[in-house]
Sequence to fold (405 residues):
Amino acid sequence: MLKLWNERLRRHQLNQFKYLRLIFNDNFVLAFIVLIGALGFWYSNLLGTIHQPLLLGKPIVILLLFLATQVGGIATLLEAPDSTFLLVKEKEFYRYFKAAKNYSSFVPIVTLALVNFLLSAFASRGAGMHILDIVVVAIGLIIFKLGFLNVNLMEIYGRAKFGSLSMRLVSNLLLVVALIVSTYWFSWTMIIIGLGYYFFLNAQSKTLETSGQLEWKYAIETENQRMFRIKRFYNLFTDVPGVNSKIKRRKWLDGLYKPIKLVNNNTYLYLFARGFVRNNEYIGLFLRLTVIQAIMLALIDNFYISLIVEMLFIYLVGFQLKPYFKEVMQNLMQRLYPISGKTKIADFTKLSTIILSIQWIVSALAIFYKFGFSINSLIIIVAGLAVLIFVNYFYMPRQLKKYLD
Fold:
């Protein structure tokens, strides 16, 4: 079983590295650095406005730490045929899952350490916590998360029950209680409860070694969902085989198509508009980036950072729309329409202009909220408009033409 795990892990890592090389290109790294810089600048300014502990300081710390603890689970790397071809090895899978649990502990530990490090400044100023208390809570959370991975392992074997309650629910309730007590009164409570929780679940998980009864359907579905989330993220930057976006009818948005005249020249404009609204991936991406941009612009009071954020996010949304055009062009049935490639590009450009214009208007409102009617506001808004025009009328047509060749 360990040999099987090592083979799958090596294949999995090679596959991940292949996509990571494509994602972390110069454009993404530049955008990421600017985004981190903007968030860091906003966070620094926020901390400068806090001169005494806030009433909601500790509840915010508890909520953020609780959410950070939910990150990460066991990466089993199971495949659908395993339930048939490896069923005879069911009793030997405990060593396989133990190796998977050890491998999967890296991401939660790094996440918790990073979140606690970044949150420490706010916890000190906004929640009135001492640095030692913050470090103690962080160590306790890491221990607690290592114990929680045993709950994931017990779920694979169908043993994650505490009486009539789910072990996951009990664990989260215990975590909330431990966070409240350690944040408000005695920080070492987190380590004490974390150690007790870890050793209890570690002892419970050892009994699984001889059980040999896996919940194959649950385990495989959970792994498939985990891999789908990863691939869906990769698919934002490059084509990933096997990732199909979910489609929803959204009848309540039918009114958006009424301005499109049902004539021959608008065939693809109507098709693109319908597909964009129904496709969870692209409309979700547009909404998320637009909301994040608006929030950042409404909070950042530095002219240069706001200027970069305005231009960068409009470019990012336009850049992320390109795969949608390619996705439609790969559908052989659309070639039945007697429409020229030039018209297809023009129609997609119209849709892109409408989408980016909505984003530009929302960002302009956020800019006016922060800077008022000033020269700075005008410069930022005009810069965003310049990026919009560049993307739709210079960058986009040339890029889309490649998908038709």
